[in-house]
């Protein structure tokens, strides 16, 4: 058995695989702050582009904007934790004075907010695939066409956020702040020794009683609602989207050339949604499996280690995938490229295009 293994196993191959898996994850953990910064910048630009007047004309764009906002907060949480850890280490090097009540309370709020944003991002991303699948599956149905309108996007966002808010409030109740008196030794003399009140985060007694019954119930419920169910639905939505995309391609080839532009735009939108769905699914589905399997292997230390490192690894991959949304939209949507160009040039490119059109119109009149 290799000494590098953190659990007992007679399989050298398994041990080697775990070692590589652990090292790759540790490398990602060392650079997760850099990934988070890149993701925040990318999603902020993505959000600005999607909220332009020319882009707010479809439900998918509005939902993508909400996803970008959720992802910004999720990645901001990573950055905040890194900064906080850095300053805590500096304080430990000088003289530890305990953790303040405000720091612990803000940690609870930020942690709850991150769970809210990640849960919302998951369901909103699923809504994008769902809306596009239903629209292209029922192209001549006025009822389903309404799903592509901005009003439908706002309704989806409100319903998901309000539902998520209720779950987050319940999750917030699982924490409580405890205080304790600690002895501080900041110097060589007895005068430098003092006692201060320090605060820490812990689970509430209500959730911990009865062999952690309610804590396990909430954890399982959150894992199923936040990860497993949307990812299973995501799988089916992706399959249906691919099938409908193929059918739509056949239909477009049979339509008259007069409708070729609108059909081409529709096809590009569908491919855009498909790309966003696949990139999200790559990271989110493994996380769903980890969340679902973890409660059942409390005594299997090796599996728990895989879950622990897998959680960090695929969370980092998820951060990378969220940063790629802007890039995918740039490649897949000409409308997005025009809006992005306008944002990047502070509207100069749009004014230039308008002036060009005006000049051409005037020359034709003369």
Automatic annotation (TrEMBL):
GO terms for molecular function: G protein-coupled peptide receptor activity. Its main location: membrane. It comes from Caenorhabditis brenneri (Nematode worm). This is G-protein coupled receptors family 1 profile domain-containing protein. Keywords: Membrane, Transmembrane, Transmembrane helix. PROSITE patterns: G_PROTEIN_RECEP_F1_2. Gene3D superfamilies: Rhodopsin 7-helix transmembrane proteins. It is found in: Membrane. InterPro entries: 7TM_GPCR_serpentine_rcpt_Srw, GPCR_Rhodpsn_7TM.
């Amino acid at each position: 058995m290799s000494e590098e293994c953190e659990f007992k196993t007679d399989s050298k191959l398994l041990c080697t695989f775990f070692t590589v898996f652990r090292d790759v994850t540790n490398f990602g953990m060392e650079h997760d702050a850099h990934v988070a910064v890149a993701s925040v910048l990318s999603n902020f630009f993505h959000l600005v582009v999607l909220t332009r007047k020319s882009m707010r004309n479809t439900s998918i764009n509005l939902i993508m904007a909400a996803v970008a906002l959720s992802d910004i907060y999720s990645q901001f949480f990573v950055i905040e934790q890194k900064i906080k850890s850095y300053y805590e280490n500096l304080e430990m090097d000088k003289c530890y004075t305990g953790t303040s009540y405000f720091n612990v309370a803000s940690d609870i709020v930020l942690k709850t907010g991150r769970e809210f944003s990640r849960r919302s991002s998951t369901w909103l991303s699923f809504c994008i695939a769902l809306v596009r699948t239903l629209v292209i599956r029922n192209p001549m149905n006025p009822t389903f066409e309404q799903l592509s309108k901005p009003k439908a996007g706002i309704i989806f966002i409100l319903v998901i956020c309000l539902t998520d808010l209720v779950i987050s409030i319940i999750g917030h109740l699982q924490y409580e702040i405890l205080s304790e008196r600690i002895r501080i030794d900041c110097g060589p003399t007895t005068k430098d020794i003092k006692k201060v009140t320090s605060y820490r985060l812990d689970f509430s007694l209500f959730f911990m009683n009865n062999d952690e019954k309610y804590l396990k119930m909430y954890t399982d419920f959150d894992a199923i609602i936040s990860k497993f169910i949307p990812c299973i639905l995501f799988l089916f939505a992706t399959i249906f989207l691919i099938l409908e995309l193929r059918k739509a391609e056949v239909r477009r080839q049979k339509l008259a050339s007069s409708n070729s532009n609108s059909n081409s735009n529709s096809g590009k939108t569908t491919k855009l949604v498909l790309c966003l769905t696949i990139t999200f699914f790559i990271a989110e589905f493994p996380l769903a499996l980890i969340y679902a399997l973890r409660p059942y292997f409390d005594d299997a230390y090796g599996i728990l280690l895989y879950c622990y490192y897998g959680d960090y690894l695929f969370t980092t991959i998820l951060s990378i995938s969220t940063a790629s949304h802007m890039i995918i939209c740039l490649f897949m949507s000409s409308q997005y490229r025009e809006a992005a160009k306008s944002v990047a040039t502070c509207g100069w490119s749009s004014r230039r295009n308008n002036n060009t059109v005006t000049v051409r119109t005037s020359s034709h009149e003369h």
